[in-house]
Design goal:
The chain contains 5 helices and 21 strands. It has helices spanning about 1-35, 55-65, 125-155, 165-190, 400-415, and strands spanning about 50-55, 65-70, 70-85, 90-95, 100-105, 115, 120-125, 205-210, 215-220, 225, 230-235, 245-250, 260-265, 270-280, 290-300, 310-325, 330-335, 335-350, 360-380, 380-385, 395-400. Strand 13 (about 260-265) and strand 14 (about 270-280) form a beta hairpin.
Length: about 425
């Protein structure tokens, strides 16, 4: 009986010990499971606020953002004025014929460069033959008149002839010589050498020559049309003396001086800029606009400039050393102007989808949007005054500011 009791007691103690061991193991395993299931602390994404944003290195490279610093530049304040391109009248000419006739040929087109004396067109008229014929005929008439005058002079000296006959012969000879001189000049104006004229070289056609060097700006005739002496065949413009005429208002006149530089663009092509220099200021008001004309000589490249083109000019009135940035560094939104200052650069971890369990580092650049007051713009730069103090060597965005501003605005709208 005692033996049986001992066996039962040993069995109960063994079961109890086994059960306690299992509980300890379960407790350890549970703690381990909880520890293993606890997630790693993730990398926090950078936050954007109203005036700070960031871009990745790949975004900066794809957009083409560039960096620089605020520079000190001599920028000139300007006066804006409208005007037009003009060629002085003494650099314009009409190619005309001194005789009426029918256009036989035209040898140039609008836009062609011509030299003085170059043939523009040919004209035919039967009257040209009559002038040449008369010139050749009058030579023999003068020869006969000279002989007659000599004969009458001898008769008069020998008291065999009347003085009246001598005077008539002398008068006739002078009239014929005067007529020959006139015909000679007319033939020369036709472009014919009178000394080379003969019965075999008579010409019914004449040439219209270019009176100056320049460009053919207009043709007023066509083949087969009849032109009078006063009818121009072509207009030629010499652009070497082309200049800019601007209309300046009275309140700005005292700021304008001879010798000041002008940057101007054409209305039909504002992307290309030209330079000019003032050489004369008018002393009268235009009756319609109450403006004063300012004349400036175009300097440098004159290609694309044509008489009569409309233009907009900026007259540089003075210059001073000021803080400036490239025009592309300034972004405008809601009526204000801004630049972007680089704050710092950080690196964040990002999962690499191409490598399981792997991670890659991505560089972020942070930008602060700083409001500025814009000043004058000149030679591709704009004067600025930041509304808050910036570090002396602050790194700024010089190209791509509008892209960063658009990203910041979009993020703000999403928030």
């Amino acid at each position: 009986m005692n033996f049986l009791f001992k066996i039962i007691s040993i069995f109960i103690v063994s079961i109890t010990l086994i059960d306690c061991g299992n509980k300890e193991n379960k407790a350890v395993d549970s703690s381990q499971i909880v520890k293993n299931q606890e997630p790693d602390t993730p990398n926090e994404e950078p936050k954007e606020n109203e005036m700070v944003t960031f871009l990745t290195e790949s975004q900066i490279n794809s957009v083409g953002i560039t960096f620089g610093k605020i520079e000190m530049k001599n920028l000139a304040s300007t006066i804006k004025a409208n005007g037009y391109i003009k060629v002085p009248n003494n650099n314009k000419a009409n190619a005309t014929s001194l005789y009426s006739g029918v256009i036989k040929s035209i040898n140039v087109m609008v836009g062609d460069h011509v030299k003085r004396g170059q043939v523009i067109a040919t004209i035919v008229n039967q009257d040209f033959l009559k002038i040449q014929e008369e010139y050749l005929t009058i030579g023999s008439q003068i020869t006969f008149a000279e002989q007659e005058y000599k004969r009458q002079k001898e008769l008069y000296e020998n008291e065999a002839g009347a003085k009246k006959n001598l005077q008539n012969s002398e008068s006739n000879l002078k009239a014929l010589r005067t007529r020959r001189a006139s015909l000679q000049k007319q033939i020369q104006l036709m472009g014919i050498d009178p000394s080379s004229l003969s019965n075999a070289s008579l010409r019914s056609g004449l040439t219209v020559l270019a009176p100056i060097n320049g460009v053919v700006s207009d043709l007023m005739a066509q083949i087969g049309s009849f032109v009078n002496v006063s009818s121009p065949v072509a207009e030629i413009v010499d652009n070497s003396s082309i200049h800019l005429d601007l209309q300046v208002y009275e309140q700005d006149l005292h700021k304008v001086k001879v010798g000041q530089k002008i940057h101007f663009t054409l209305t039909n092509d504002p992307s290309k800029e030209y330079d000019a220099q003032i050489f004369q200021i008018g002393d009268y008001f235009e009756s319609n606009t109450k403006t004063i004309p300012v004349h400036a000589t175009v300097i440098g490249d004159k290609r694309g400039l044509i008489d009569g083109m409309s233009a907009t000019g900026l007259i540089s009135i003075d210059s001073k050393l000021t803080a400036a940035v490239p025009n592309s560094a300034v972004a405008s939104s809601y009526g204000n102007s801004y630049i972007f200052v680089v704050l710092d650069e950080k690196t964040k971890q990002a999962n690499d989808g191409g490598n399981k369990g792997g991670k890659q580092k991505e560089k972020l650049t942070f930008f602060e949007k700083v409001q500025v007051d814009k000043g004058v713009s000149d030679v591709g730069y704009t004067a600025i005054t930041p509304v808050k103090e910036l570090p002396k060597d602050a790194k700024i965005v010089t190209k791509g500011a509008y892209f960063i501003d658009a990203k910041l605005i979009n993020v703000g709208e999403e928030d």
